UniProtKB/TrEMBL annotation:
Bias kind Polar residues: ranges: 105-125
InterPro entries: Uncharacterised_YqzF
Annotated source species: Paenibacillus agilis
Pfam families on file: DUF2627 (PF11118)
Membrane-spanning parts: 12-33, 53-79
Record carries keyword Protein transport: no
Name of the protein in its database record: DUF2627 domain-containing protein
Signal peptide residues on this chain, from the entry's feature table: none
Annotated segments matching region Disordered: 90-125
Keywords, comma-separated and alphabetical: Membrane, Transmembrane, Transmembrane helix
């Protein structure tokens, strides 16, 4: 019994870490982007500096980390909600349709059964 509890605890810890790590990546990416923008604004306001450049490498690296983290967490939430049927109808899984019926056979059956046949009406009057 203790072995089952240990396995359950380890599996839950791994599941939590699978969500914490992308969250930390997204947070770090956001901070890198914020720092790059803030440093550019600070340098622009300093009259002693003449050659001011934007830190593209930290900004794009932060954008990449942010996109990876948010994309992973967003995808996890989306597929969890899809499994519990919480999503809008256009995002639900498409169910395979059955074979298409033969409309020619249905048309001949409906003409005989619906009373649209004028010869049948003439015989009843």
């Amino acid at each position: 019994m203790a072995n089952a509890n240990v396995k359950l605890t380890i599996s839950r810890f791994i599941a939590i870490m699978m969500l914490v790590i992308p969250g930390v990546l997204a947070t770090a990416g956001f901070l890198y982007m914020k720092d790059a923008i803030y440093q550019y604004i600070v340098d622009k306001g300093n009259p002693a500096l003449t050659d001011i450049s934007f830190g593209w490498l930290p900004f794009l690296g932060g954008l990449f980390l942010f996109a990876i983290g948010v994309g992973f967490i967003g995808g996890w939430i989306f597929f969890r909600d899809r499994k519990h049927n919480y999503v809008a109808p256009r995002f639900r899984e498409k169910k395979p349709r059955g074979p298409r019926p033969d409309f020619r056979q249905q048309a001949t059956r409906s003409q005989h059964n619906s009373g649209d046949n004028p010869s049948a009406e003439a015989n009843t009057k």
